Amino acid sequence: MRHLLSTADLAKDDAILLLDTAAQMAATQAREMKKLPTLRGRTVVNLFYEDSTRTRISFETAAKRLSADVINFSAKGSSVSKGESLKDTALTLHAMGADAVVVRHQASGAPHMLAHAGWLDAAVLNAGDGMHQHPTQALLDAFTIRRHLVGGGSDAGTEGTDLAGLRVAIVGDVLHSRVARSNVRLLHTLGARVTLVAPPTLLPVGVETWPCEVSYHLDETIERAKPDAVMMLRVQRERMSGGAGGAFFPSAQEYSRKFGLGSRRLARLPGHAIVMHPGPMNRGLEISADAADHARSVIVEQVANGIAVRMAALYLLLAGNDAGAGSVPNERTSL
Ligand code: NCD
């Protein structure tokens, strides 16, 4: 594996190797000294053309915990606002000796272009492109699901395991969600059964060809599918023309009533079920404050797990070949 562009490119073995490596990385993060020397002397560039809080900070933290040099580049305040093209930006990063480029871009396909146009000689990691893919988010979600629903809250005994037999409901604005697209693919590869739940106006054309079931009724899905994990999606108003979401559903109240997760629906989920959200949340719209802060919510843990997953991705892409994929340095050998 040279780049991480889409979960559709990940065979089951690749996905499990990433999750197992992330588990080893997570173990190193429980130590007092969190920093590993693995990527010393390597340069990771964070190239963000779209807003981000969690993903950008998480990639930065991951690269720093592996001792890489990190350059943060955001389109606002750079020559991009003077009209510089992606190609010229890429050539600049190449001249600066970037070993990995983490890219978030509003255009679907921009990371693919960076990886394959020949402008750069660096590993490219997709941190979200348009409405297309967000592979590290799906990996951190799968990692969180495996930890809770296979490992009982820890990584013990999860090594090499997939998600066979687990049921995951992904609920809300699927149409605009790269998180949903990435998760459907990855969770299917890992053997989970996915049900997408959304109003017909928030489902993409062609969804019937995706490897999942589709439902228009959240209550019915909770009763029938008895999901082990419920992943709520943000209503992405910025991707809706007009901005208010008005063309896609009658009103915010109606959306919450039919597709929101609150205490009443939470109480009807199986006792062991977990509640997930990639963030940022619209509290009171797709998820109530009670549900977001409930003991069953693993939303804050998803953020913590993102660091371990991104450390694993950077490690496997940049050092995996020299160091032997999957063997994370430990105190004895490398510190
Ligand atoms: C997601 C994104 O940017 O695609 N957020 C994230 O990366 N944590 C989802 C969203 O913006 O709703």
Summary, kept brief:
The chain is of the alpha/beta class and 335 residues long.
Describe it for me?
There is one protein chain. This protein has 335 residues and is α/β, with parallel strands linked by helices. The chain has 2 domains: 7-133 and 302-322, Aspartate/ornithine carbamoyltransferase (Rossmann fold, 3-Layer(aba) Sandwich), CATH 3.40.50.1370; 135-299, Rossmann fold, CATH 3.40.50. It is built from 13 helices and 9 strands. Strand 5, helix 6 and strand 6 (193-197) form a beta-alpha-beta unit. Helix 5 (135-149) packs across helix 6. The longest helix is centred in the C-terminal third of the chain and has 20 residues, at 299-318. The radius of gyration is 20 Å and the shape is globular. The structure holds N-carbamoyl-L-aspartate. N-carbamoyl-L-aspartate binds next to helix 2 and helix 6. Residues 2-146 form the Aspartate/ornithine carbamoyltransferase carbamoyl-P binding domain.
Catalogue the unreliable spans: 330-335
Shape: globular
What is the CATH fold-level name of the largest domain?
Rossmann fold
Strand order of the largest sheet: 7-6-5-8-9
Largest sheet: 5 strands, parallel
Helicity, as a percent range = 25-40%
